[in-house]
Design goal:
Largest sheet: 5 strands, antiparallel
Order of helices and strands: EEEEEHHHHH
Helix content: 25-40%
Strand content: 15-25%
Distance between the termini: 55 Å
Strand order of the largest sheet: 1-2-3-4-5
Number of strands: 5
Oligomer: single chain
Radius of gyration: 27 Å
Number of helices: 5
Length: 172
């Protein structure tokens, strides 16, 4: 992405970027920081779509016709951070086609937890595994993560046993 940074005459640091540059319009993004006496960064984000000047020899370059976009959105600090959180939490699952899921940072009530515990406590483990695989409940990357945790825990347990000089048959 093409970017340009600088400082305004009023001392505001900014960073401009071009999101998309088409024949007649250009989409631009801008960051700027508003200094405050209480030392809290107030970073703003603006996204705008600008109509380009036409008829110029340089018309294939990003030259807005006007300084005001034909559409724009400016986000304050709270909105910007919420947008980042939204994108981090939702982009990959949505892209994969998952439209509904439970965020781990949400509070689970006792009923939801007991329902999950009951599902995994099923004594017929082969049916449980078949259900999990058939319904793609545990994606491959999560299964690999669980396997890695088991390996890390096994190594930690082995190290503790070595420190305690346990007999070889205890840790083999």
């Amino acid at each position: 992405m093409k970017t340009h940074k600088g400082t305004t005459t009023k001392g505001l640091d900014y960073l401009f970027g071009i999101l998309k540059d088409k024949k007649t319009v250009v989409s631009r993004v801008a960051f700027w920081k508003i200094p405050h006496s209480h030392n809290v960064d107030d970073v703003r984000l603006k996204i705008g779509r600008y109509k380009k000047k036409t008829g110029l020899i340089l018309s294939n370059q990003e030259i807005p016709e006007v300084s005001e976009p034909k559409s724009a959105l400016t986000l304050d600090k709270e909105e910007f951070h919420n947008l980042i959180a939204f994108l981090q939490e939702n982009h990959k699952p949505f892209k994969k086609g998952i439209k509904e899921y439970i965020l781990l940072n949400e509070k689970f009530d006792k009923k939801q937890i007991s329902h999950l515990q009951a599902l995994f406590a099923n004594p017929k483990k082969s049916e449980l595994i078949e259900f999990i695989v058939d319904n793609e409940i545990l994606p491959a990357d999560l299964l690999m993560g669980l396997q890695n945790i088991q390996k890390v825990n096994a190594v930690k347990e082995f190290e503790v046993m070595l420190e305690d000089n346990l007999a070889e048959h205890k840790w083999q």
